[in-house]
Design brief:
Elements: H1 14-41, H2 59-85, H3 92-119, H4 122-155, H5 157-162
Helix pairs in contact: 1-2, 2-3, 3-4
Length: about 160
């Protein structure tokens, strides 16, 4: 086996991985806070026009589902931070799972929004156009990220040399 000692350590392309793991909880807290605020602040139950809060059949259930999923992702993210900084050999597989689960979740949210778009009418449908284009960018970013970082984690010499504890 080749000497991998020169690749050992949290450097190189592992820096953006670590940075993403450190910043991701901020976004997850924001989404959880937003969903809980909409649920308990009344925003999810108010009838809306195209310029106010989104409201459609199943939206309240979706907010609950999204908040619970984000809480699970947050817990996994915090656990992965521990594994990452301790350079545990158990880090790569759960990280790849998180990438795939996150991409799947974004695809699921897009599918839900697409369903709402096709069942909506008139002004409400026009109001969903912006949300659709934002979500399309999120889908592209999540899938591309899962592919890129997943391949990096599975093929990298640095990953093989670093996560050995």
């Amino acid at each position: 086996m080749a000497d991998l000692s020169k690749w050992k350590g949290l450097g190189g392309w592992l820096i953006p991985v670590g940075l993403g793991l450190c910043l991701s909880p901020i976004n997850r807290f924001y989404v959880i806070f937003r969903d809980v605020t909409l649920l308990f602040g009344g925003g999810a139950g108010l009838p809306a026009d195209s310029y106010t809060a989104v409201h459609f059949a199943g939206y309240t259930g979706f907010l609950i589902f999204e908040a619970v999923c984000e809480m699970v992702f947050l817990a996994v993210n915090i656990w992965l931070l521990f594994l990452f900084f301790k350079e545990r050999r158990t880090f790569p597989r759960p990280y790849i799972f998180l990438l795939l689960a996150s991409a799947s979740f974004v695809l699921l949210k897009y599918g839900f929004l697409l369903h709402a778009f096709w069942t909506a009418s008139g002004a409400f449908r026009n109001g969903l156009d912006d949300a659709m284009s934002d979500q399309e960018v999120n889908v592209f970013r999540a899938v591309l990220s899962a592919i890129f970082w997943g391949l990096y984690i599975t093929k990298s010499k640095r990953v093989k040399a670093t996560f050995v504890n």
